[in-house]
Amino acid sequence: MAAPIHDWYLKQWLRTLGKRQADIARDLEWNKARVSLTASGKQPYTRDDINEIADYLNLRPYELLMHPEDAMRMRRLRDEMMRLAHETDETGEDSRDKSEAPQKVSSA
Hints:
This protein is mostly helical. The chain has helices at about 10-15, 20-25, 30-40, 45-55, 70-90. It contains five helices and no strands.
């Protein structure tokens, strides 16, 4: 059986956020070997690891499984969708074409 591939982007997130492995070791009280082996993919990570690191880095857990650039693009897209949804709510306008609106059925 082939060895599992490294499938998370912890090193890239640390670089993006200006953190170091030593910060994780100190702040989360992990030993240096655990941080190094987990970050390099030589030691499998657990759900608890993902959740703890995501919380520490102020990320959603699934974002650690994405390159930071991709995750940031998704955040911007989500923010824009939320802004548009709120804008529509505030104006009370329906963005659908009125011709597509459901028609009332008259009772016979």
